[in-house]
Structures are given as C-alpha cells and as structure tokens.
Amino acid sequence: MAVVNTDGTDKDATKLRIAFTLVVSGIECITGTVGSGFITAVYGAKWVRAKRLPIGDCILLLLSFSRLLLQFWMMLENIYNLLFPLIYNQNTVYLLFRVTIMFLNYANLWFATWLNVFYCLRIANFTHPLFFMMKRKILALLPWLVRLSVLFSICFSIPLCNNVFNVYVNSSISVPSSNSTEKTIVSETNMSKLTFFYNLGILIPLVMFIQASTLLILSLKRHILHMEGHATSSRDPSMEAHVGAIKSTSYFLILYIFNAVALFLSLSNIFHIYSPWNILCKFVMAAYPAGHSLQLILGNPGMRRAWKQFYHRVRLFLRRQTL
To answer: Where do transmembrane segments lie in this chain (predicted)?
Structure first.
C-alpha cells in the first residue's frame, strides 16, 4: 500500500526528485524512441515498397512499434503520476495506465519470444526428425502465432481490471498551524491476484524464450565440436550466426529480468511515490525497451549499415543548416 500526501511538506526535495526522475527517464525514453522509431521506419518503408515482409522482419517491425507505444505510455504515466497526482489517482485513469502498461509488456515479451524462436529455427542445426518437423510447422504457423499472442496479451491483462488495483483520495484536511490543506492518496494492490496474473502472463513466453535459447546454445556446442573434428576456420558463417543470436538473446534476457522485477515492484505499490526505490524502478523500466532497441540495431549488420547511412545524412543536413 502506498500513501501520498499532496500538501506542502518538503516541497523543495519533492520538486528536485520529480525533476530528476522526469529528466533521466525522459533521456531514456528519447534514446529508446530514436532506436525503436528507426527500426520501425526501416522495416515500415520496406513493407510499403514490397507490400509484404518476411516473417522475421515482420516480427521485428511489430516488436519495435510496440516498444514505441510502451515508451510513450511510460513517459505519459510518469508525467501524470508525478505532476498531476489527483488526475492520475482517479480510479478509471489509474486502472487504464496500469492495465495498458501490462498489456504492452506482455505483447513486447511475446514478440521478442517469437523473434528468438525464429532465430533458433533458422540458425540451430539438429538432425533429429522431430526438430525438422517442428521447424517446418512452426515457421508455417508463425504469422498466426504472432497474431494469437496479441490476443493472449489482452486476455492476461483484462483480469487485472477486477479488484487488483484500487486507489482512494480522501477529502481535504486542514494542516495544523498552517493555512494549507492536504489530500491523502492511498493506493492499494491485491498482491495475491497481482502475483498470480503477472506470473501467469509472463510464464509461457518466458519458458519458450529460454527453451529456444537453450537449443541455440546446444546447437552452437555441437557446431564447435564439429569444427574441431574437421579443423574448420573459426570465422565460419554458421558460428558467427550462432554467437550473434546467443548474444542478442542473453542481452534481452538480462534486461527483461530486471524490468520484470522493477515492474512488479512498481505495480505492487510497496514504495512511496517519491522514494529512491520507486524512482529506480522507473529508470529500470525505461532502460529495458531503450537498451534492447539499441542492441537490435548494433547486433544486425543490415540495421548497422542503415544507421550509418542515416547518421551520415543527418550530419550533412545539420552541416548545411549551419552554413
């Protein structure tokens, strides 16, 4: 349960923390928006030109676009939460922010999971008939599975509307020895329901993500043993593809675990709104989509080339403006 007093106590310290939180999370949001927006623009333009996209590019487009929405929504929530607490803590508004951020987090995790599954099926090299059958069927069904995951995200978010998050604002109370009044905002979370639905929503995609990553690691191990037996060069393309995919999935997994813990703590309302721990949770949540978007650009040779071209054009444009 979190309690917030909207009186004039410690105004200077509160204003400083609000400004610090908005500046740092704003920088993270802008960084992530540039990264996600760039990926969305590149694959969106490719989709417009070709009228269709390969399934891997389509998942990347959906992932980057959902990241854009998540970053905008988190920044909007921070602004309302910190600057307009009386509006933010109305039950309807409060519930809208909480449920929407859960839906976007679920959708992000699902899209990242399908991207990892796609990499695994395209890169991993197993001779077992079951793997070949799974590879053929999943790749054929992947467009439908991606659509289905959006429906799953909605289904896991909707139960959070039912008596999980509650907020109360009491009437104005006079402050003794002062001409001011205060309003006390009490935010309560049903922890048993939140824990159940939160874990239920992330369990299936997270298990799938870890399984796909494990298959990639096992495939890399087999490939290394094969290379040692045949004295193959260490710069083998399959080896580089394995290592690149494993680095990408490991980076995402680390970011997501930190984000999942921070998001759960933030939703549970165990910290005061202006406490350092609550502010840290906001920073971690904003760093997750920004960090993974940048990693997707740096880890993809095609995206790196497109970024260098974009950066070069921006520099030329700025140089011409200054002349």
So the answer is: 18-43, 55-75, 95-117, 138-160, 196-218, 251-271, 277-298
Cα–Cα distance measured from residue 254 to residue 259, given in angstroms and rounded to the nearest whole number: 9
The Cα–Cα gap between 139 and 114 comes to: 10
Contact (CB, 8 A) for 215 and 124 = yes
- Least Cα distance to 306 among 45, 47, 115, 27 occurs for 45
Domains and CATH numbers, the chain: 8-168+196-317 (1.20.1070.10)
**Are 77 and 282 contacting, i.e. CB atoms less than 8 angstroms apart?**
no
Write the pLDDT tens digit of every residue in 88-136.
Answer: 888 888 889 989 999 999 999 999 999 988 888 888 777 778 878 888 8
In the chain, the amino acid numbered 123 is I
Give the Cα separation of 151 and 145 in Å (integer).
10
Which amino acid is it at 37? G
Instruction: Return the structure tokens found at 225.
Output: 């043993």
The owner of tokens 């803590």 is 89
- Helix 191-230 and helix 91-123, axial crossing angle in degrees, nearest 10: 20
> Other C-beta atoms within 10 Å of 206: how many?
18
| Residue partners of 14: CB distance under 8 A and separation at least 6 | 274
Token duo for residue 247 = 């680095």
Distance CA 219, CA 122 (A): 11
